[in-house]
Amino acid sequence: MKTNLVLFLAAGILSLSACDSSQQQTGNSDSTSTDSTSNMIPSKANYQDTVEGKATDLYVLKNANNMQVAITNFGGRVVSIIVPDKDGKMTDVALGYEKLSGYQKANEPYFGAIIGRYGNRIGNAQFQLDGKTYKLAANNGPASLHGGPTGFHARVWDANQVNDYTLELSYVSKDGEEGFPGNLTCKVVYTLTDDNAIKIDYTATTDKATVVNLTNHTYFNLNGEGNGDINDHILKINATKFTPVDAALIPTGELKDVAGTPFDFTKPTAVGERVDADDAQLKLGKGYDHNFVLTNGDTTMKQAALITGPKTGISMEVLTTEPGIQFYGGNFMEGKENDGKAGKAYPFRTGFCLETQHFPDSPNKPSFPTTTLKPGETYKTSTIYKFTAAQQ
Ligand code: BGC
């Protein structure tokens, strides 16, 4: 394993020095270099800047199988995930931008981002805790979505690349930021493993009672980013219930059986098979944009979902300690992101998110698993995205 890694790194260095800088800037995937992945990742220079006084950069994790994951500390965003397909061809399965500026646009759809302090919506952008009402910054009609307009997705995280496999990101969210109480000290660790998995470990502590719900908002396309819609992906979600929403996409509080509805993914089913069915919940979400209920209080690491892109044979297994998972099918994508990697645009439903989480609007739903964090407690969750491809 070690020798392979040394050989791979040596090959990487040789091929990088063989590339001219213009090649690296383009992010062109049609590489002729010996290391087929070296120029599939945007140039580091495209991400090196200073935002609100802090340096931004692009960090690349690599494993013994040539899998690579590029992450910027602007929003802790996963920019590229390069994995082998069924024929061994390296394929980028994460949607993202060629340059940092892509992630800084207004209404950018959270590509690759760490989401916080609260993943998904809090109804009417307010909640009560210990008898006090906290008013949040509304950014989705009357609701707070993904932590507010300048949530964790738009903050510069302190980065420490420990080695080829591990990137540690830290951020302290100030008391009152986006309306949330308490100074929240957060750490998110991305670890790439030699079994082609990305593990994300989230921890947080607070100095005042608050609510926390951290997740990752990577848009995946397992047929390769920019390679058509995701309707043909075969999805299994290990959930017998989901949380139906109202017109503002806030959970009603009900846990509804998936059986007999287009939300039943307990058996592997193509995403597109029922997405446009005549179903009130699908109409509200403009397709799939719902939280699925994974457990009843079980916080052990378990498989939440398994999804395959048939064109590449690449499968992704999602495992998590979280009680819920949001399946978002890219219904609000408009193809305006034409500054995608290598100049690609990402139209309607060409990416999906599987966001492990506590349920949306939990601070206002006492029957949902709690998202309250108190001083002296440690918020701790983990999620794994593991990639395989049936070799031919
Ligand atoms: C939400 C969608 C939202 C999207 C933003 C998802 O997590 O569930 O409703 O539009 O994020 O890109």
Quick tags:
single chain, 392 residues, mainly beta, Beta-galactosidase, Chain A, domain 5, five-stranded antiparallel beta sheet, 28 strands, 8% helix, globular, binds beta-D-glucopyranose
Tell me about the largest β-sheet.
Answer: 9 strands, antiparallel
The low-confidence runs, each spanning 5 or more residues with pLDDT under 50, are 1-34
At CATH's second level, what is the architecture? Distorted Sandwich
**Terminal-residue CA separation:** 23 Å
How much β-strand is present in the residues? 25-35%
Number of domains: 1
Kindly provide the name of the CATH class: Mainly Beta
- Global shape: globular
Q: Output the number of helix runs.
A: 4
**Structure summary, number of beta strands:** 28
Description:
The structure is a single chain. With 392 residues, this protein is mainly β. The protein has helices at residues 2-18, 21-26, 100-103, 280-285, and strands spanning 49-51, 54-56, 58-62, 68-72, 77-84, 90-92, 113-115, 121-122, 126-129, 132-135, 144-145, 158-161, 166-173, 184-192, 197-206, 210-211, 215-217, 234-237, 241-243, 256-257, 269-270, 289-293, 302-309, 314-320, 324-328, 353-357, 372-373, 379-389. The chain has a single domain (44-389), classed as Beta-galactosidase, Chain A, domain 5. It contains four helices and 28 strands. The longest helix has 17 residues, at 2-18. The structure holds beta-D-glucopyranose. The site of beta-D-glucopyranose has 10 residues, from β25 and β26.
